[in-house]
């Protein structure tokens, strides 16, 4: 939640809602990882009659690309949190704003990529470019977010597949080596598969690279909750109208069920489960 930029979701609104819930009697217990600190079955043993799982999708998807560990290459979550959260709320080792330099490349095509583009511009980057391996028609992110990013100065390069992150003389990333792509047949997502074109290599200069490749659910809840049905990707199987899962008393909704989606969609799922 706190990785969502303030220009999309001001955190004073979040804090106000949390305050309203606390005054209504909701107790927030933080620093507790369900499946590790305490299992769902233990919650039932403690006397709870129902459990709603709304943990979202927290694990950054990654690419096995040479140079991914270079300084200046960020996962989207870390970048967005450091770029948008008040440093006083962050651990000392990640409390400083990212130094993005003049040129930033964002890899990905969803709403998170748009958030990264706009956040990089607010940090002072002069050239911010989104690299996406399909065409704009196949991008999963919202059209409105792309329009706003373009209005603020972001650019897009389509049919572009990164294959290597290149270090400069100081050891920090300085460029992205890419291949041009063409579209083939439909894949499992219903979109045309990007096919890299042999010997079409080119480079995009970048002082910072941000990987906005999507998110996966943390598998720990499925792994530690017997008979809770999940998809092969780890998403929880739940009734879309009630939130009921394969385990009596366990309900789920939001990104943990649908994959990455809107805050409003998750709120609707919670309301359905509550009624």
TrEMBL record:
A Pfam family that this protein carries is Pyr_redox_2
What InterPro entries does the record point to? Answer: FAD/NAD-bd_sf, FAD/NAD-binding_dom
Domain FAD/NAD(P)-binding: residue ranges:
92-268
Question: Which Gene Ontology molecular-function terms are recorded?
Answer: oxidoreductase activity
Which PANTHER family has this protein been placed in?
GLUTAMATE SYNTHASE [NADPH] SMALL CHAIN, GLUTAMATE SYNTHASE [NADPH] SMALL CHAIN-RELATED
Q: What is this protein called?
A: FAD/NAD(P)-binding domain-containing protein
Originating species: marine sediment metagenome
